[in-house]
Write a structure and sequence with these properties.
By secondary structure, the chain is of the alpha/beta class. The protein is built from 14 helices and 13 strands. The protein has two domains: 155 residues, Aspartate Aminotransferase, domain 1 (Alpha-Beta Complex); 250 residues, Aspartate Aminotransferase, domain 2 (3-Layer(aba) Sandwich).
């Protein structure tokens, strides 16, 4: 059956395929640690009680009809207050609209900004920009980042590609690296975007920035989240933001997200989301509106989830440093934000006990699953080069007291390599 060009070329995320494969092995009784997926085990990371109870109450109160295309006013007001109180980010309720998680905003922003053939600039590794760019038939401009820039793109890397680009997709804290922009690094990028837009002729499409900050409340230690509009107010005209409850409230299955940005763009994105029907469920909107307005409850939740995630990330980081001291070719970037640790397995060329040579990062990755019984996601699955020795470790399904066992299994598997 011949289908549309989009249907013929669209691919399922390899990360979802990998996670499903590992879960199938677990279902067959294998004891595996699945550190692949950016999701949470609700037994370890439940949504806040107050959020759950408020949603259940909303269902009991019969909040089951259409929620309206912009989202309920009560929730948009609560989101505006949440952004202001916890992030120092000033957007009015009318600038905010609500959808079913972060994805509809990303998809609708691509559809509203990018025409077929337009350049879309994004760093790799990064999450799903390759898929969205292909969906809108944009031209992918990949900027491969390294540990030297904290795996974040820099103004210097972006500058040569600006002419003719309609979208620059950025994410901080970033999936898959768990790293963030420094204030200076982001300020340089903002200057570049403003300069480029000032140089464009009247009637020409602007260069827009899709700024995905869905992990922003999850920063640890000295790390801070920086917001383009707070760095340079002129960015308000050129930036659309993605946010929601999926990560910082571990509500991946709750499906409530919000987007905010310039009103003309937001209005068009709203129309696209409305045609898709990708609204957030009404009872969830009512419940989350009540919950977010309870600043003390939100503060206590954020403190708790930050403590749990950073505790597990730190434990893994220390474990990798110990493996490195033990002489194994591994490394890790110190935890900064989100729910991810960037780890390195520099094992290409090593021989397994049965004499197989691990001649690619994919083989190293498979060895870790089969021998150590631990699943990570190679950065190549996020668009980095096939030879990248870096991997994403996600802690959403792992309790801190399981870390020693994971590290022991890794140690034992690595020790068998010649
Ligand atoms: C960077 C980033 N943005 C957006 C999303 C989408 O979140 P949602 O599940 O709310 O659609 C994810 C999910 O993994 C993500 O990692």
């Amino acid at each position: 059956m011949k289908l549309s060009q989009l249907a013929e070329t669209i691919q399922t995320s390899p990360i979802i395929t990998l996670a499903a494969e590992i879960n199938a092995l677990k279902a067959r009784g294998e004891k595996l640690f699945n550190l692949t997926i950016g999701d949470f085990d609700p037994k370890i990371f439940p949504i806040p009680d107050g959020m759950r109870d408020a949603i259940l109450t909303a269902y009991r109160n019969g909040e089951t009809n259409y929620p309206g295309a912009v989202g309920l006013p009560h929730l948009r007001t609560a989101v505006s207050g949440f952004l202001k109180h916890f992030g120092g980010i000033d957007y009015a309720p009318d600038d905010i609209f609500i959808g079913s998680g972060g994805r509809p905003f990303i998809c609708s922003a691509y559809l509203a900004i990018v025409d077929p053939g337009d350049k879309v600039i994004f760093p790799v590794p990064s999450w799903n920009n390759d898929h969205y760019t292909r969906m809108v038939r944009g031209e992918e401009i990949l900027l491969e980042t390294t540990v030297d820039t904290n795996f974040m793109p820099t103004a210097e890397m972006i500058e040569p590609h600006l002419k003719g680009a309609s979208l620059l997709a950025l994410c901080s804290p970033q999936n898959p690296t768990g790293t963030v922009f420094s204030r200076e690094g982001l300020a340089e990028i903002c200057d570049l975007v403003i300069r480029e837009n000032r140089s464009r002729k009247a009637g020409e499409k602007p260069l827009m920035v899709l700024f995905d900050q869905i992990y922003w409340p999850l920063t640890f230690g000295e790390t801070r989240h920086h917001h383009p509009v707070n760095i340079n107010p002129e960015m308000r005209e050129y930036c659309v933001f993605i946010d929601g409850v999926s990560k910082s409230f571990s509500g991946t299955g709750v499906r409530v997200g919000w987007g905010f940005g310039p009103s003309k763009l937001i209005a068009k994105m709203r129309s696209i989301v409305a045609h898709l029907g990708a609204w957030a469920p009404r009872a969830e909107q009512v419940g989350i509106g009540h919950y977010l307005a309870d600043t003390a409850a939100v503060e206590s939740h954020l403190e708790s989830i930050r403590g749990k995630i950073s505790g597990t990330l730190e434990a893994f980081y220390r474990g990798f440093q110990q493996l490195k001291r033990d002489g194994f070719a591994v490394d890790a970037v110190h935890p900064q934000a989100a729910m991810y640790l960037t780890v390195k397995f520099d094992m290409v060329g090593k021989k397994t006990a049965s004499g197989d040579v691990l001649d690619s990062t994919e083989k190293v990755h498979r060895y870790l699953i089969n021998e150590a019984k631990v699943g990570f996601v190679p950065f190549s699955y996020f668009g980095a080069s096939e030879t990248s020795p870096w991997y994403r470790l996600s802690v959403g399904t792992c309790a801190q007291d399981e870390v020693p066992m994971v590290m022991q299994q890794l140690h034992d598997a690595l020790a068998k390599l010649g």
